[in-house]
Structures are given as structure tokens and as C-alpha cells.
Specification:
Two copies of one chain form a homodimer. Chain A is mainly alpha-helical. The first copy, chain A, has seven helices and three strands. A three-stranded antiparallel β-sheet of chain A has the order 1-3-2. Chain A is elongated. At the A-B interface, helix 1, helix 4, helix 5, helix 6 and helix 7 of A face helix 1, helix 4, helix 5, helix 6 and helix 7 of B. Chain A binds a DNA duplex through helix 2 and helix 3.
Chain lengths: ~180, ~180
Amino acid sequence: MALNHAIMTAMLDTPTTGYELTKRFDTSLGFFWKASHQQIYKALRDLEQQGLLFSEDVPQAGKPDKVVYQLTEQGRQHLDAWVLQDSQVREAKDDLFVKLYNLNAHNRAHLRQELEKRAHSSAEKLSLYHRIRNRRFANPANLPLREQGIYCALLAGIRHCEMTLDWVEEVTPLIGDA
Amino acid sequence: MALNHAIMTAMLDTPTTGYELTKRFDTSLGFFWKASHQQIYKALRDLEQQGLLFSEDVPQAGKPDKVVYQLTEQGRQHLDAWVLQDSQVREAKDDLFVKLYNLNAHNRAHLRQELEKRAHSSAEKLSLYHRIRNRRFANPANLPLREQGIYCALLAGIRHCEMTLDWVEEVTPLIGDA
DNA sequence: CTGAATTATGCAACTCTTTGCATATGTAAA
DNA sequence: TTTACATATGCAAAGAGTTGCATAATTCAG
């Protein structure tokens, strides 16, 4: 159950609320692990019950009150131990490839559009990744080790987007008819 | 529920048993969509109940009897319609990236090993993909359209493996300490 | 003939994810 | 002042996937 570990990872530095996590899971770590707010709030409660997090109710003026969670020492140890476990690769499941197996004259125009959409969203994400790299990783060699790890993940994201763009450019003519 | 569609896709050409599908989901379509035999047999029964497949019991000599499923006309139409729907991109969830966010002096050696393992399995898969390309797609321009679609998917697989190999090579020194 | 492997299928429990619905407070614009 | 938006949290049902267990026929090696 890596969602729990992703959540704990997101809390390594700073105590956080479910709401903030939800937003962060749309960026940064969220590039590699998506989760809905329903999942997150549930996971936070579960993790607290397991003693891996603890929470404080924080009343706020001008906003609804919030619940701030942070890692316990046990949580930190649990996370450390998890990182040292072997990870099994869970292959991506992607509709688009299944659909490509169905390519025919009747759906080729649609599938070309899907490829374009894919390229478009890759291009957008790529430019976001570039902005992050320029802002946060301008001089990667001098970063603390953990930041380097995050940088490695970012580089994977960048490469993935670039690959998708190249691939779409390569295969669009194969699908042809435009 | 794209598993159902993946199964129907795998049956476009030939009637098939759950057992054969299970094996095929370790290759070909299975590169892009994994499923266990428990999932597959269940899905086959469900699809038959929905009228998208129909089955024949085939007694065999020298082996246990089998149940051969094939697409109904309704199933074919359903699949066609599904291909024309917009597909939402379900991002890959990958432990390894979450773990990289936890990089520290204590786990760097382990994470370097994980990267190596990843590179190794990518290299293996890549050589398998190359074999498939040479055997089945030596002259892609002359293939029927549907085969071209399959070829596009294969090219994505190839690029993905290559990307992974390049990425591991790039980031291994960043993790360093070896 | 016994035990292992292959072919062939299935149930049940559990975990994980998605989807739809729900609630409550406060701010800012129309 | 009504409406929309952002903040902040949650329940419940359904769908999808994993894991463990189970069965049964046949072949083949030892």
C-alpha cells in the first residue's frame, strides 16, 4: 500500500493537513502518485490509528478549522524500512495502447486526435517540469541528498514527456490518413 | 473498465479460452495491460452475461475440457464504440519515484540497486520487443492497418525501455556513493 | 506407481481506487 | 443579498485488483 507511504513521504519536512496534501498531490509527488481527497483523509486517519502519524486540531480565524498531521518517530522508522524493501514494478495500464490494437479505417481519425491530445498534455507537463527544474534545481550538484532524489524523479518525468512527444511524432504518420 | 475491453481486443481475431488469454496477457497486449487469471475468468463470465461474448464447451482428449469464448456482434459493436470514446490518462503509479523522494545516506545503496534492477528488466524487455519487431514488423509499411496500430504500441514499449535505460544511466551518478 | 508439471477453471476475502454525495465556514463579487 | 468560490472534511457504494486457496484431468520423469 504505497499511498500511505507517499503521504508520509510528503510529510517528511512539514506537518500538513489533508487539504494541503490534496493540493500537493496535484503537483510534485503527485506527478508520480495521484490520490483523491477522499483517499487522503481516510489514509491520514488510518495512519494515525496505527501510530505512524499524530494530529492536532488547529482552529483558524477566517477559515474552517483544520487538522494538522505530522510523522511520529515510529512513522519515520516505518517509512525508512519501507524504502529498503524491494519494490515490484506495477506496469502502467493505458487505454490508449489497447485502443491502438483496435486501429481501423473507422477509428483512425479519432485515434490520431487522441495521440495529439496526449502530445499536447505531455508538452504542457514538460514545460511545467522545466520551470520546476529551473526554479528549484538550477544547480543540482550542490543540493542535499534528498533533494537529489527528488531531482532524479523529476528527470524521469521530463524524459517521459519527451519520449511521449517523440513517439507521437513517430507514429502519427503510421496511423496516417490526414 | 478497460480490462473487459482489453480482453475483447485480444479476441478480435480468434476465439480464445481464459487459459490462453492468461498466457497472452504475459506478452503482447499484456505489455500494456496486466491481468491475473482470476480477473480474466471472472471478466469472461461477466461479458458473456452481458451478451458481448458467447462460449462453447469444448471437450478435449489428453487435456481437461475447456471453454472457448468469442465476440458476439454486439460485443464487436461495443468495442468499436469504446475505442471512439475519449480516454482519460491514468498516470502510472510507481513506488520507485516515491522512494527516491526519501533518498538519504542510509538508503542510497539500496536505491542504486533498485535502479539497476529497473535498468536490467528494461534491457530484457527491450530485447524481447526488438525480437518481436524483427519477426512481425520487419516491413511495417505493408501491414494491414490494425497491425500498424499494434506496431505503434510496440514502438511505445521500445521507447519506454530505452528511456528507462538512459534515465538510469543519467541519475545513477547523482545518487552516487559507489 | 508416485510425484511434479501443465492444462484448465473457479471461489472468497481483502485492499485499493473511483465516484457520488454531503456538510460547514468564510470571502469576494454581482 | 444571493451566488460563487476557496477552505476543510467526511461517508458510502461500487468497481478494480491482489492474494490465497482449491479442484480436476493428464502427461512425463524417476
